[in-house]
Amino acid sequence: MKSKITLLKLGGSVITKKDEASTPNFQAITRLAKEICRAEASPIIIVHGGGSYGHPTARTYRIAEGFKDKRQLLGFSETHEAMVSLNRLVVKALVDCGLPAFGIAPSSFAVTRQRRIQVFEDEPLKQALKIGLVPVLYGDAVLDYEQGFAILSGDQIIAVLAVRMNAERLIMGADVDGLYTADPKVDPSAHLISHLALKDLQQLRVKIGEAQVPDVTGGMLGKVSELMLPIEHGVQTIIVNALKQDNIYKALKGEEVVGTKITKT
Ligand code: ADP
User: Fold this and answer.
1) 8 A C-beta contact, residue 54 and residue 15
2) What's the 214 CA to ligand 1 centre distance in angstroms?
3) 112-154 per-position pLDDT tens digit
4) Does 174 sit in the ligand 1 pocket, CB within 6 Å?
5) Integer Cα distance of 218 and 230 in angstroms
6) What is the value of pTM for the model shown?
7) Residue 239 Cβ contacting ligand 1 at under 6 Å
8) Cβ–ligand 1 contact at 29 (below 6 Å)
């Protein structure tokens, strides 16, 4: 039996203005908080990305490459701090509309090895869910057994959670309508794929890999690679455009919504 948990990802490109450093998209955060409150989906865990908050500092100090130089330590602190402040904004917006949101730092319960989650202490999460809180996690700067520290993406967190918590469904809120045949921001002939089975997804990855256009494999396809495991486990997955009004509400309610559904078969 599935535990009926819903997992919701709010992409960094949705809740921040990706082209402006450390700039939250307040309008999107407030609207999404209202949609989430109105939908009353429970139990639910929300995971958000970093967008223009975490990424620039992480890039400057090369946090993702690991600890090589003492000067990077300050960058680690700054990256984590940036993510904490973004998390606070999301949590506050949710609390303001009456949802008992509870921000939890992934760096306090997860340790990676070579950037992949190795330790994942999910007890606080489970207890929080049990009493009806809504955990709000995020992509974070975390400690890594081999490389000292690493960037743990919200996408990896949500994929691991989906499997561990035996989630019923996974809703990925992105800044595009779903998965396209190519990056829609680069290729005007790209078209939206409304439904995909796991095997189609594998083929699509190979096809794009063969096309050797590295930019295209970024963003959405990196995301989709993380989603393979939960989809294999039968978690219903949908990617929708969270920048469009009511899409997240509809997805949470199980209503028809434009997007990409990915199923096991
Ligand atoms: P987020 O920050 O929301 O987690 P990213 O910005 O990392 O997401 O990834 C989403 C981006 O991936 C989209 O804005 C889009 O430009 C890009 N992308 C690349 N390839 C594709 C594709 N095949 N289909 C959809 N989007 C794609």
Assistant:
1) no
2) 13
3) 999 999 999 999 999 999 999 999 999 999 999 999 999 999 9
4) yes
5) 20
6) 0.95
7) no
8) no
